[in-house]
Amino acid sequence: MEKEKKSRILYVKKFLEEQTDETHQATLNDILEYLNGEEITANRRTVMLDIEMLIGSGLDVVVNRSTQNRYFIGSGRLELPEIKLLIDAVQASRFISHKKSETLIEKLTGFASRYQAGELRRHLYTDKLVKPENEQAYITVDLLHTAINRRQKVHFKYFEYTPEKEKLYKHGGQTYELSPYGMMWNGDHYYVVGYSKHHGKAATFRVDRIAEPKLVKKPAAAPPSDFDMAFYTRSVFQMYDGPIQSVTLLCPNYHMKTVIDKFGEDVQTAVTDDDHFTASVEVAVSPTFLGWMFANRMKILAPEDVVNQYRTLLHGAT
């Protein structure tokens, strides 16, 4: 009897989650009909008690009281627009493989009622060629989060690609030792930021290029007291690995959106003439940053040493 009671409660929960929403409310008779189809004995009183127990356990069951009460799962679960947004994000992510995307989308669809499932067929175009096939990165992300939570070091190898598109371990397969500070998401890729023993400073590594990661039973080095992850994101995390400097840019007006996309809406700007504006930014100066400037046809006004670096780059490009 006890086993049947527990089974009945689970089936009542299953019915409410899968077959009800705000526009598809169920009566006690609907629930009893469902239970009868599952060959589970119940009556109106036992189902009402089951629903009260589910509400008491935290399930968001909404009751519209009338001559015939109606029940449905409320806003405590993901709402349909939220599920659609998450499905689009999974489909578009270059970090998530085709196989994992399908699995996650199937699970997300389970949060909707069967009446809403048809609306979850999305029509978002994504470039399927950039989807990875290797799912090792998910395991690496989990390991890194564990290391951060436990404040432990990690060891790993890091690879790049040869002109033949073959993986090549950096520094002859050297093992890196990292005290991870936190995880970042940028340009549709995961990165880990932390103190690198090899570099002797804070460094950034792309997670999907980490190989053979291992937790090390050594306490991780704590971030410096003045380490600002947000500032690190705005400057160094743009993948411009160089010294931080204040740089003044001269930009065509049509590139205001480009500057805001890169440096944020609070970037300091001033109108110069009818066709140009200046932007004062804090950046890590490097060939990558200078290349970005060149690609967008911008000029550097100050400081002089950065102007000279830019001139050298332009001269080498001619």
Detailed description of the structure:
This protein is of the alpha+beta class and 318 residues long. The chain has four domains: 2-73, Winged helix-like DNA-binding domain superfamily/Winged helix DNA-binding domain (Arc Repressor Mutant, subunit A, Orthogonal Bundle); 80-130; 148-227, SH3 type barrels, CATH 2.30.30; 233-317, Alpha-Beta Plaits (2-Layer Sandwich), CATH 3.30.70. 37% of the residues lie in helices and 26% in strands. It has ten helices and 13 strands. The protein has helices spanning 2-19, 28-37, 44-56, 80-92, 98-109, 136-150, 229-234, 256-263, 287-295, 304-317; strands at 26-27, 61-64, 70-73, 152-161, 167-169, 176-186, 189-196, 201-206, 210-219, 244-252, 268-271, 276-284, 299-302. Strands 4, 5, 6, 7, 8 and 9 form a six-stranded antiparallel beta sheet that branches. Strands 11-12-10-13 form a four-stranded antiparallel beta sheet, covered by helices on one side. Strands 1-3-2 form a three-stranded antiparallel beta sheet. The longest helix is centred in the first third of the chain and has 18 residues, at 2-19. It is elongated. It starts with a helix and ends with a helix. The model has no long low-confidence stretch (mean pLDDT 84).
Tell the overall outline.
elongated
Q: List the uncertain runs.
A: none
Number of strand segments: 13
Number of domains: 4
Radius of gyration: 28 Å
- Distance linking N and C termini: 86 Å
The residue-averaged pLDDT reads: 84
CATH architecture tag of the largest domain:
2-Layer Sandwich
